[in-house]
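Quick one, T. Sequence first:
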Amino acid sequence: MNKYSIFLLSAIAVGLASCEDTSDLGKAQVNPQLPMFDANSVEFIAYPYIDASDPSVGEVKIGYYSVDLPEGYALRGTIQLSPYEDFSKIIESPLISDQHCLYANVAELAAQYTATISESPETTDLHARTILTAFKGTDEVRIGEGDMYYGVTDYAFTPVAAEKIISPVYYLVPGNGTDWAFEKAIMMSHSDINQYDDPYFSALATKPYEVGDRWVIMSQESYGAAYESSSIEGVEYLAPVYDRTEDGIVYGEFMKQTGAPDASMLPTLNVPCEITFDAKSMTYVSKPAILNYYATGNGWADWGAHWMPLSTTDFSNYYGFLNLDTKFKFAPQAGWGGDFGAANAPKETESNGAFTYEGKCKDSSVDIEIGHPGMYFATLNVVDWTYKLQQTKTWGLIGAFNGWGGDIAMTPSADLYTWKAELTVTDGQGWKFRANSDWAINLGGKADELWANGADIVLPAGTYEITLNLSTYPATYTAVKK
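Structure tokens:
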């Protein structure tokens, strides 16, 4: 229990000065003063447990108070709860007083918590503070100067139970409907957010499974039981049900089952693919998971002599650096077959001598044509089949070593894929790579992972030969100390 003494209060409200009115009333009027409160007479003891799991209970006790109030005055207040110390996001409830205890409405707090803070049913600690006011009729005065709060402590808050239990971990298990490769199951990836606020789980299947091309999903508990018994019998799992295919993407839903499924009803695991599972709506999306697309064309690439890779993190957008002449095509592998070209002529724009092309592609024998050869940072979207090419005419180094005020020019190789420069830094000085002496295209991060708009790079003090390698994306660099 926490006991809080309150510092001496100044006048809570200053009475309005008397004023004479010699108008038709013919008599002076006096505005009454609001009362002053003795801070030493106030104490507040928090009851730092709020169980909101059953909103039907009505009110929950949040604290005890003791205070000497002027005749005719009563106490009430408002409790504020937040997951953040600065109370940047809050839920709050008016408090009613009964027998020196303050009560909050459980249903109101439960609804606000779910809508504002989290849908998780797990008990959590919330920062709390309470505003106390004294009132009499329509007169109401906040107790305490300025932003004074009572019961400033942490409350253990138990939210309302979830409508559907969501496991923190799920596994994609391959099989043929009878036999299942539990040892080759894929633990689905998930964000750092709790599974109730982010119910999406994903698995990447890149190669066929000898046991079969069917699949189910199991919660962590079910998977553990099935793995231990080497059987799906008696274990609850989620069986996928096919719904439709749109633009090569498969959609469906899940049914909870136990016992052997009907293998003919299970959809095929068309590898490589990425399966995303929504544990709240019990639906899934399966889309092709091509790890890389490639480009080749005339000039340096010599129509297949070089296949320039584009990589992805979401299997929708692919990125890479392309050394282009005037004509090129995309392909889903480093070779001919399935290659595709232009759906229309790309739109050309220019800024400070660097060109940008944007267009749409399709399964076509028509080459994509541009008017200015050079190195381009390419983005290919395989959902709407659009592309964007941003020319990188120069590369330079910029950072704290020169006050972020200019670029150290880098020297390119003949194929434009490697660039070199000498750099001198002191400890703690951040720096980055950027193209065209402009921030539109810049690279940062780690030596083996340079991302567009990545974090500043930091090296120990010294002079280095820096080599930027654009042959892959994310790009890479080396720093050799002299």
